[in-house]
Amino acid sequence: MTPHAQALRAYAQTTAPTRTARGTEYEVFARITRQLITAARSAKQDFPALTKALHDNRQLWTLLAADVADDLNALPDELRGRIFYLSEFTRLHTSKVLKREASVAPLIEVNTAIMRGLRQEGGAK
């Protein structure tokens, strides 16, 4: 390998794409939503996978609720309230899914709507 090729390789390894905060949020929602979809398809055969996906989703929404409850959060109050409401909905609906009283579909729909919003505002890269 030539010195030039070695230098290119060394610098290429340290160069990572820069993500916006919104893009990172989108990626987290996408990963967890994929988990929910996959687990929902095999819930009868693999309920533990569904509980793991539900736990990860609930954890994400708990973090979001804590973030929007912080007085230093710069989002508009109305949006903060909506996010907090969705967090509560997610918490309650997840309990119903775990008791096998409800479908995972509404949780997937909520996450998908959030992902659309994150994409529309130009953030996910």
Précis, in short:
It is built from five helices and no strands. It is mainly alpha-helical.
Describe the protein's architecture and organization:
By secondary structure, the chain is mainly alpha-helical. It has one domain. It contains 5 helices and no strands. Helix 3 runs antiparallel to helix 4.
Q: What is the number of helices?
A: 5
Task: List how many beta strands DSSP finds.
Answer: 0
Task: Give the rounded overall mean pLDDT.
Answer: 88
Strand content: under 5%
What number of domains? 1
Helix-and-strand structural type: mainly alpha
Major β-sheet annotation:
none
The residue fraction in helices comes out at over 70%
Q: Give the low-pLDDT segments.
A: none
> Shape from CA axes?
flat
Distance between the termini: 33 Å
String of helices and strands: HHHHH
Cα Rg: 19 Å
Search tags:
125 residues
Please write out the topology.
Blueprint: H1 3-14, H2 21-41, H3 47-69, H4 77-98, H5 105-120
